Structure formats: C-alpha cells, structure tokens
Amino acid sequence: MLNLPVQPRYLLPPLFLMLLSVTFATFDLNDLLEFNRDLVTQGELWRVFSSQFVHANWAHLALNCGGIILIWLLHGEHTSPKRYAINISLLALWCGLGVYWFCPSIYIYTGLSALLHGVIIWGAVKDTTLELKSGYLLFIGVWLKIIFEQLNGPNADIGKLINSTVAIDAHLIGAIGGTLLAAPLLVNYIKNKN
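RESULT FIELD:
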C-alpha cells in the first residue's frame, strides 16, 4: 500500500502553487507577469519573480503541474509549509535573476520548470540526509538530464507541445539554485554524523 503524504501540511502547499498558476492562466495574466527583458529593464522588476508562475499555454501549465505532483510524491513529507514557501520563493527569485543576468538571449520567459528543477534537487539532498539511497540516484539523474540538455539542446517535441522554446539554461540555473539551497542541509548532516 502506498503511504502518500496526504496530511494537509504536506498537500496544501503544492495545491496552492498549482492553484496560483491556474488562476494566473485563467485570467490570462501573462502580459502583466511574464519575464519580458525590455520591461524588466524599464523597471517592472516584479516580472523577475512572477514569471515563474505563468505559462505559455495550458499544456505548459499541465506539464509543470505534473512536476509539482511528482515532487510531492517523492518529497512531500520533507517540507513544512513554511519551508516549501521559502524554497519556492527563493528559487523563483534566483531563477528570474539568473535568466536576466546570464541568459541575454531570452527576452520572454515563463514557467515553473526552472524552479522545479531546484526543488527536486533540494529534495534529493534532503533524501540523502535521511540516508535514503534514492536521493543519490535522483540527484545524479537530474544533473545527467541537465548535462544532456546542455549538450543536445532543448527537446523539440516538448517545445511544440508548449508552443515555446524550452529554456534549458533556466533549468540549469534552477538546478544550481537547488544545490545551493540544499548545501546547509548537507553541512548539518555531515556535522551531525561526525
């Protein structure tokens, strides 16, 4: 029998994240919230953060909601609502700033996928601190995916589905952010083990 993290403290944060993105899509708020390099440069700084929560289309949103569900299944019981909100907020800001600073060719950017790469990396490291061997496999697997994308480019089929270019550099930025965010977990684990 599956032991899913269905207690409200584990279930409500990912549901809220999906609901937020669905609400933004329902009211078609992309023009107001998406990362638009020219508008960010002109002072609309909120777009750096808010762009993570809007999507190119409903298929794009559905893919990211699938990612949220997968992460909840894997790591839902590892975070409190406060930790979840902190991770999502810090990674949203990190990813938006990373796209702005390090991806000058990206003019329009939307979607949760970059920060979700960071969240799954954080969860993998958390697994390792709980001595779950699956954490090592997941950490290595995500980094192999990132390397594969960097070497081979974005997945064309996904690009067609979401009617947009898959921002593989943003995925890399998100994974780096998740690794940095998880570093204190690893440091504490090593200290406590010694």
